[in-house]
Amino acid sequence: MEFNLVDDDWLPVVFADGSTGEVSLRDALLRAAEVRSLALDSPSQVPPVMRLLLAVVHRALDGPTGEQQWSSWWEAGVFDAAAIDTYLDEHRSRFGLFDECAPFMQVGGLEALNGKTKTTALLVPHVASGNNVPLFSAQRDVRPDALTAAQAARWLLHAHAWDTAAIKTGAVGDEQAKAGKTMGNPVGSLGQLGVVMPMGPTLWHSLMCNLLTTTGAAGDAGDLPVWERPPLTARWAERMPKGRLDLFTWPARRIRLIPEADADQPGGVVVRQVLVCGGDRVSLNTGPELRGWMRSEPHSAWKRSANLERKRNFPLVYWPVRHRVERQLWRGLGPLLARVELSTPAAKDAPAVQGPAVLAQLGSRERMSALKGMPLRVLAVGFEYGNQSAVIDEAYGDVLPLPVAVLSAQDDDWRHTVLFAVKAADDAVRALAYLAENLAVASGCRQSEEGLLAGHRERARQAAYAALDTPFRRWLSSLTDNDADPDEALDRWAHEVRRIIRGRAGELLKAASPAAWHGQETGEGEVMDASLAEIFFHSALSKALRELFDTDGDDPDDAPTDMEPPA
C-alpha cells in the first residue's frame, strides 16, 4: 500500500477563485499563490501543517539567509519550482505514509509490549478515546469511522503537535518502558504554547510571513527536519532541539498507522487502528535549555517566570504565554506586540514579556515595505488540558486582523495606539462590572457575599466584551488606511466604547429592582442606591476613556443616562 505525501493529494484547500480541492505537498508549494487558504479538519491542524511546509521551503531554498534574500523571494511572487522539485524528489521516499521501513513521522513495524493496538479515535481529540471523552461526542472509540489516508496524515501531524500527556503504551524496543507503559510523557510539541501565526491573502503570502531568516537558532549546525535524520525507532530521547527545523518536525510520539485495503476509498486504503507510544521530549531542565527552547520557537509569546527562577535558582527564565479560552485574542494583544530582545540582558534589565519572533520579524524595514497595505490576520490556536494534562478540556481558536503598521520596529505609534485601545476597553468594562456590583448591593446583596457579587460582575463583563468584540475587530481593520492617524483612531474608538458601555449600563439600570433605587445601608452609615451607583459608574467610565479622546475638550459625556427611578 502506497500513499506518498509528496505527490498524493491530502491537503484540502480553498483556491483563490473560491473553488475547493485537495493538493499534494508538492502542489501546495508550487501552487501556493493560487491557494487562498488551507481548509483542514480543524484549526488546530493548521500550525503543524504550516510548520511542515515551512521546513520544506527552508531546506529546499536554503534560506532565507537574510532580509535581502527574503525580499528577492517576495519580488519573485512564487517559490523556485526547480529547487522545490529537486528537494522533494531527493527525499520522496521519507514521505511515504505506509512505508514498511521508514513511514513518514512514524516507526516502521512498531509494536506494543502488550501486542494490542487502538482505534484512530486516539488521534482525533473530538472523538471519545479512553479517558478523553468529550461531553457531546457523537462517536465512541469502539469502532469510529475509518480515516482515509489523507485524513490519517493530517491527524498524524496533529498528534505530534497536540497529543495529551501522561501514560502511553510501551513499545517493543523502548528501554525506558516499565510494566508495559511509558510514564511521564509531556503534551505534544505545541501543547505548552499559545500558538500564533500571521496569515496573508494566499498560502504563499502566509508562508512568506512565517519564513524567518536562518541566521541564529534556525541555522544551527545539525538543524534538520525529521525526514533528513535516521528513521525513527521505538527508542526516544529527552533532548534539546537542534534548531527551528528540528522543532517544526518534532517527533513527540512514536506512532504507527495500520492501513487496511478498501477499494471504495481514495487511494484504496483506510486506517482504523493505530499505535501511539512515547516520543522525544524537549529537555527543559536548566536555564540555558529553557532559553534555547525560546530562541528556537517563533510561534509563541513568552512571559518571564519568577516561579521557575525561584524554584530552580535560574537567573532568567521565560515560559510560553498560553491562550485563555474565556478571552478573545484582542484582549491579550499585549504579549503579542511586546518587543523581542534578541540578546540576553541581565536579569534586572530583562523585559517581563517578549512577543513571538515571527511577528517581530514582520516589523523589519524590508518586510514592512513589502507588506504595506496588505491585509494580515493572526491565527491563534491552543488547547487547555485537564487532569494532569491527560485530557483535553477546551480548544481555543481565533483569527484577528492585524495591520502590519502595528508591528513596526521603527515606529511605536500604532503599537501604542492599539495597546491604549485595549486598556481603555478593559477599564471601561471594569467600570460596568462595578456598576453591576453596586446595583446588587443596593438591592440588598451583602458585601460579604463575594461569590454572588463576583457573579454579577462577571456576567456584566462577559456581555460587555461580547458587545465590544466585533466593533474592535472592525476598528483594528480600519488601521490599514494609509491616511489613518493614531490620535483620530483612538478618538473614534473611545466614542464607540462609550456608546456601547453606556448602552449596557442603561440596560442594567432598567433591570434594577425598586429596592435598588431606595438603597441599602452598607455599614458606618453609608447608603448605596442606584443613583449613586450610576454616578460612580460615569466617573469611572470618564476616567477610563479620557486619555483616548482628542484634547480639544471632547471628553466623555458624564451626564447620567436617561433613567428615572421606578414609581
What keyword list fits this structure?
single chain, 567 residues, four-stranded antiparallel sheet, 17 helices, alpha+beta, three-stranded antiparallel sheet
How many alpha or pi helices? 17
Q: In which range does the helix fraction lie?
A: 25-40%
Major beta sheet summary = 4 strands, antiparallel
Distance between the termini: 81 Å
How many beta-strand runs?
19
Mean pLDDT: 90
What class, by secondary structure content?
alpha+beta
Radius of gyration: 27 Å
Oligomer: single chain
Task: Give a description of the structure.
The chain starts with 10 loop residues before the first strand and ends in a 22-residue tail after the last helix. β18 (520-523) and β19 form a beta hairpin. The protein has helices at residues 25-30, 46-61, 67-76, 81-90, 149-162, 203-210, 244-248, 287-296, 306-311, 333-337, 357-362, 365-371, 413-442, 450-478, 486-511, 514-518, 530-545; strands at residues 11-15, 20-23, 35-38, 118-119, 147-148, 166-169, 181-185, 195-199, 238-239, 253-261, 269-278, 281-282, 302-304, 318-320, 353-354, 377-386, 391-401, 520-523, 526-528. The longest helix has 30 residues, at 413-442. The protein is globular and about 80 Å long. The model is unreliable at 555-560 (pLDDT under 50). The strands form seven sheets. Strands 4, 5, 10 and 11 form a four-stranded antiparallel beta sheet that branches. A three-stranded antiparallel beta sheet has the order 2-1-3. The protein has a three-stranded antiparallel beta sheet with strand order 8-16-17. It is built from 17 helices and 19 strands. α13 runs antiparallel to α14 (450-478) and α15 (486-511) packs antiparallel against α17. It is α+β, with helices and mostly antiparallel strands.
